[in-house]
Amino acid sequence: MAGTIDRRGFLRGSAVFAAGAAAGFACIEIASAAPIAVPTVDKLSLRVLIDSAHDQFLKPATVQGVLHQPPGNGRGADYRRVLHNQWGLSLFAESWRAEEARTILLDFGYSPEALLNNIEILKVDPTKVDALIVSHGHHDHYGGLTGFLDKYRSALAPDLKLYAGGEDNFCHRLSPVGTTGQFTDFGQLDRRELTAQRISTVLCETPTVVAGHAFTTGQIKRSSIERILPNTFVERGIKDGLGCDASHYSPAELQGKIIPDEHVHEHATCFNVRGKGLVVISSCGHVGIVNSVRQAQEVSGVEKVHAIVGGFHLGPAPKEYLTQVVGEIRALKPDVVIPMHCSGLNFALEAQAQMPENVIVPTTGSRLVFSA
């Protein structure tokens, strides 16, 4: 990576700033293209605030040095309340380096009702949050953000930032209706609401250190056998102050055409745990979980993979392709693989078949601890 932003990157950044200014988006930053100094932490805790299921019969276990603490009955002190599960993901990441602690909220689930409910039941402290990260522009990963800020913004740091992979996160998404050629609305992350809440957005097309403890991969190279499985479509452009700048995309996109979503700015969040290696968190992994891990290795210079965590978007994968991808994951030699969200039961079963000593299947409310 160059120490300064190249001309193309500068023009892209300038276009984003210009479009943002025109639409009233005052709080936009472009992450530096300079190489990062990858931080190391002594301990990392991931609390699963939202996932698709809850299993109250899970037992505590330690797998390859990783502690998995399930949430028990998921009710807390009040039997009339229960953890909410939904299609989406949200992770509460706490890390420590000596006595220095940092907290990051990674993704926000589908709805604020579920996120706020689970925060209260699990008794995590949202006022400790040092940074926010959104993995990509799908509603099941940002849907709870505005409601979270409505409730807790006044108790959070005044200079709180949201780290997004790039401008693509704010584009309008649509879901196809079968093979009819019709679409239903799948929303878009509204930067106007973030500005109203005094949240600065950092566009991390390049690797970026977050809160001094974590780092993001930046835009992920596509070098493996993986492919984007069918999902959403995308419409670029700004309408009525809402959307994403389209000036640096393809001619088809400039014409306002709806095209298959390539997730050009999806990024993974990573920690380097002292003596253990990388914990790579792929919230959905549309661009490929193997690609994501390889990118983390390249930008960090750390080869050892301690854990691969999160959504891998292999639920819709055909059997032959799934088997091949799990084989590629096994070749990365992770200590543990921890599938969530869109990974799919098919992935969990195949991973357990190929890597029987290395798989942890968590649940909503689970706590995963990685330590030196």
TrEMBL record:
Gene of this entry: rbn_1
Keywords: Signal
InterPro entries assigned to the protein according to its UniProt record, in alphabetical order: DHPS-like_MBL-fold, Metallo-B-lactamas, Metallo-beta-lactamase_dom, RibonucZ/Hydroxyglut_hydro, TAT_signal
Organism: Methylorubrum aminovorans
Lineage of source species: Bacteria, Pseudomonadati, Pseudomonadota, Alphaproteobacteria, Hyphomicrobiales
Matching Pfam families: Lactamase_B
Signal peptide: 1-33
Domain Metallo-beta-lactamase: 100-153
The name this protein goes by in its record: Ribonuclease BN
